[in-house]
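[recover] target loaded
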């Protein structure tokens, strides 16, 4: 049917079925109770619509809600308050519900008003019987836009919270504390926590923290709670139990806050399994490197000892024989061969100097005094030699008697001392050095202190400072440690602690 004919037909039907509005006003005007006590004073928007969907009465609250006057709405189809694109659909649904006695008694709906303003309305509809008017619908309409927008924002916030909560890289647990400060059942758990422990979310919300830890860890949790009550935050390590009772080492950061008027604990658990495995691998690699470094040091000491012995024994003996032969030749020369005697005397002096150099080189490679007399005499010799060559005064405070210490530890301590003295000579600009060696309980302590310009922290931590690293590695091999502390313009203190108890096989373990 053409649109024009359809509109003409509808207009004809409306005219033929249009009620007598004068009669309507007469009926409504006689209902004083309705209009004076309910209608006019109501803060709720109210309207009456007839079977055709025309508004036959509206109150002031409704006019304010839809931002139209009574004159603009009375006896008009109720969709005039909406945007034009909603008119036909709204009127069609209204007539269908009215025809089938299926009018919705209560519902909420988002609408676009005639002025393009988006609103949410809360509708309460009911039939009322007014004699002579047929089916009349009373609609109580409230603008709930603010509340609805708040609900939508809240829902969006909740969705964002759940997205962030479940996207966390660590397991998250939330639970209340009861009046005795014991942990109650979980009130929230993220997906990663469920996956990590092998439980479903519904299963975890039926249990508490005590059921996912070993019994012996209960006291740990109580200690954690005491810390939370006093400081509101703590970090600790514990073992969690999976559903199949396998253990997972975790680091937990817990925070205490107020929620629903109850003390609540938020715990973020980080799985340490990978970290522990990495730490084990690093430790194993470090041990292999230390073993290798130790073996290289042993080889180097063995080579130094061998070279020193060869230089001292072979070259020294040869030089001694050479000097004796020169002396014999010199004694056989005649008086008139004085110029030859002078040359032989000069050669003999050169041999003496060479012998001294050989002894000095051999001592530097491996001081025989360390093997023959022990660590204490070796330190005394080294300090005297250092003072003679550098002019830096050395003061030694050493035990009066030698103590039992194996050759490897003696060598390590002596080499650490040599490296420390070398660093002083090169960098410290010091005038004096103090060397102290003493036994404390089952450890040997050695301190080298100078009054130079003081080493900086950046120099101590510099990975290219191979001398310092070598000192530390020599001590670590035997379970010892080297501590270095510098004070600007005051000097540097090197403290070496070397265990002396039954660690003789530590170097060869692994």
């Amino acid at each position: 049917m053409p649109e024009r004919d359809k509109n003409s037909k509808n207009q004809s039907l409306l005219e033929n079925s249009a009620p007598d509005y004068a009669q309507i006003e007469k009926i409504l005007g006689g209902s004083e109770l309705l209009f004076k006590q309910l209608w006019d004073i109501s803060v709720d928007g109210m309207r009456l619509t007839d079977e055709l969907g025309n508004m036959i009465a509206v109150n002031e609250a409704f006019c304010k809600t839809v931002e139209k006057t009574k004159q603009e709405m009375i006896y008009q189809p109720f969709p005039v308050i909406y945007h034009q694109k909603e008119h036909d659909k709204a009127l069609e649904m209204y007539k269908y519900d009215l025809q089938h006695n299926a009018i919705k008694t209560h519902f909420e709906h988002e609408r676009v008003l005639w002025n393009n303003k988006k609103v949410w309305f809360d509708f309460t509809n009911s039939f009322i019987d007014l004699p002579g008017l047929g089916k009349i619908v009373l609609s109580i309409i409230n603008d709930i836009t603010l509340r609805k927008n708040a609900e939508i924002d809240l829902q969006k916030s909740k969705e964002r919270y759940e997205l962030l909560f479940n996207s966390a890289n660590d397991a998250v647990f939330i639970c209340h504390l009861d009046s005795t400060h014991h942990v109650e059942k979980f009130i929230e758990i993220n997906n990663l926590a469920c996956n990590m422990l092998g439980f479903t979310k519904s299963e975890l919300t039926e249990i508490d923290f005590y059921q996912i830890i070993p019994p012996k860890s209960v006291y740990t949790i109580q200690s954690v709670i005491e810390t939370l009550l006093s400081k509101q935050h703590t970090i600790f390590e514990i073992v969690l139990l999976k559903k199949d009772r396998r253990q997972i080492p975790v680091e937990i950061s817990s925070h205490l806050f107020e929620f629903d008027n109850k003390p609540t604990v938020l715990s973020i658990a980080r799985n340490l399994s990978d970290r522990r495995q990495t730490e084990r691998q690093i430790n194993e690699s470090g041990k292999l490197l230390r073993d290798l470094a130790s073996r290289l040091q042993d080889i180097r000491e063995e080579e130094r000892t061998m070279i020193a012995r060869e230089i001292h024994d072979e070259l020294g003996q040869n030089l001694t024989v050479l000097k004796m032969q020169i002396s014999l030749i010199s004694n056989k020369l005649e008086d008139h061969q004085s110029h030859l005697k002078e040359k032989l005397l000069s050669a003999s002096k050169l041999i003496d100097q060479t012998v001294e150099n050989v002894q000095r080189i051999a001592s530097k490679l491996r001081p025989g005094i360390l093997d023959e007399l022990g660590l204490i005499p070796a330190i005394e010799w080294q300090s005297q030699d250092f003072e003679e060559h550098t002019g830096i005064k050395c003061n030694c405070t050493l035990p009066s008697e030698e103590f039992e210490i194996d050759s490897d530890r003696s060598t390590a301590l002596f080499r650490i001392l040599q490296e420390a003295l070398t660093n002083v000579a090169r960098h410290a600009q010091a005038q004096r050095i103090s060397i102290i060696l003493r036994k404390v309980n089952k450890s040997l302590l050695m301190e080298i202190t100078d009054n130079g310009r003081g080493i900086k922290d950046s120099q101590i931590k510099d990975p290219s400072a191979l001398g310092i690293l070598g000192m530390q590695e020599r001590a670590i091999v035997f379970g010892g440690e080297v501590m270095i502390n510098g004070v600007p313009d005051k000097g540097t203190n090197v403290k070496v602690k070397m265990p002396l108890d039954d660690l003789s096989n530590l170097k060869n373990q692994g």
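[recover] notes: The domain at 3-149 is CATH 3.30.450.20 (Beta-Lactamase).
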